[in-house]
TrEMBL record:
Pfam family membership, one: MarR_2
Source organism (scientific name): Actinoallomurus liliacearum
Protein name: MarR family transcriptional regulator
InterPro entries for the chain: HTH_MarR-typ, MarR/SlyA-like, WH-like_DNA-bd_sf, WH_DNA-bd_sf
Domain called HTH marR-type: residue spans: 7-139
Amino acid sequence: MTQDELDGSVGYVLKRAQAALRAAMDAALREHGLTTPQYVCLERLDQRPGLSNAELARNAFVSRQSMNVVLRGLEEGGLVERPARAPHGRALPVRLTAEGRERLRRAHADVFEIERRMVGVLGPERVDPLRADLTRIAEDLGG
């Protein structure tokens, strides 16, 4: 594949945009003492308290082992809590603490600004079609 073919590849351009988004989020979240996977974890727990490690891993696009590390850091930082024993089965439901909720609130404003910048270059009439197209692509590829 030539450089021109690579630069014109939709997959390459999509990965380039994803890498730029991740770098921007990492930089913004660093100011809040969070990583991007930690932020995603806090967001999901705010929306659905009690998710398990496996469910959080799927939502954050990381392995269960990596999510264990993410959760351990959040727990040590006082941002989430898990019971010592599972109420049923083996899954330990995770919940945000008050500090976790507050840290998420502060970080969310910066992440929202990145999202606003990202879609701002498109114009409002192109955002919904882009979201729909990307969703169809992900579903077709099994994601």
